[in-house]
Amino acid sequence: MHWRKTSLCILMSLLVLCGCSTVSNSNQLDPIGEEEYAAIQPYESSDARIKHAALMGDTEARFRMEQGLMDLSKTYFSPTKVAYKTQEFLDYDELDATDGSRGLLGTNRDENPNGLNPSPDEGFNTGNGTVSGAVILVDLYELDWYADDELQGISIAMVVNDALEDENGKTVEITKGRMQNYLEVTSGHLVSYMRERFNSITSNVPIYVACFSLDNASDTLGSYIYQGYFEGAQGDFSELDLTWVEVPGAAFSEADSDMAAQFAEYQNELSHVLVDYSYLVGKATLQDGKVIQLNITLTAHGKTASEILAITQAASEQMVVFTNSSCTYKVEVITDAGTYAIVSKEAGSEDVNVMTMQ
């Protein structure tokens, strides 16, 4: 498979070496970029992956959530100082609570004292009413950070429902205050459990917990809303605002009406080339209400090689319509045979990079 670079910038980025990293672990792979984490070999996929797939059927949502956890973790665990393993401790048996199992994702009861969901015998106060049998915590994702083959820290994503269904089938949204209270108490229980359960997770191992809301009550694709950093038993908590939205969409337009108009213009300009059996959609990442990344997927069915080349050229040329220099842009051109090209523009740069695969 031959890669053709049409930008000097993309060529230079591929030549960047990651030798500046000070991470040292046995059998460690080289990271793709200097701001990315390195994986540790042999890479072992945890059986918790089966549980994750069953609990969250949307593969893209799972990917966004875990990638977001990695990005957020960089504040506490530098990619130049640690490498990662996954789900070393919270495996399938630790999580599973089906058929009365004693798992963390189950309800808190006599038979399951470590269950992190509210007791079925007690109603949960959502702030908008009390709901019985509430399932707030949906899943737990874990990343484990190592240096010199020693555990240096752990990052955990708590996946939660932001709305519950009451006994009458009505959707009841959990207020911000009640959700934060639940997250602080529950993350504290989780950290305490892990320190007591696993000998290698001593009080000297910091644990970062970020809470990912599935946003059932909104038109977004999920968001990180709260975080806690534990050194010992005490957690330092703060709010988060990292959200993913559909493009085009109401949430995207509300966040940045100018960029929404520019996307519509971009879509219109490409329609003169796309003609039929083609469409263009996207997803945006918002941080503190501002768009920091726009990913566009341009799908073209039944096109000839010359038509796809023309589409890719137009996709690159029309990137000029986007004026927000603080945002990173990426357009993936997909044909019936798979990805044909990636068109991108980094934040703070005027250069448009095109990488084609043929």
List the keywords:
358 residues; 13-stranded mixed β-sheet; two-stranded antiparallel ribbon; 32% strand; disordered N terminus
Structure in words:
This protein has 358 residues and is of the alpha+beta class. The chain contains eight helices and 17 strands. It has helices at residues 8-15, 48-55, 59-73, 92-95, 176-197, 250-255, 257-274, 305-317, and strands spanning 3-5, 38-39, 83-86, 124-125, 130-131, 137-147, 150-160, 163-165, 171-173, 207-213, 220-231, 234-247, 278-287, 290-300, 328-335, 338-345, 353-357. The strands form three sheets. Strands 1-17-16-15-14-13-12-11-10-7-6-3-2 form a 13-stranded mixed sheet, with helices on both faces. Strands 4-5 form a two-stranded antiparallel sheet. Strands 8-9 form a two-stranded antiparallel sheet. β15 (328-335) and β16 (338-345) form a beta hairpin. α7 (257-274) packs antiparallel against α8. The longest helix has 22 residues, at 176-197. The radius of gyration is 23 Å and the shape is globular. The model is unreliable at 1-20 (pLDDT under 50).
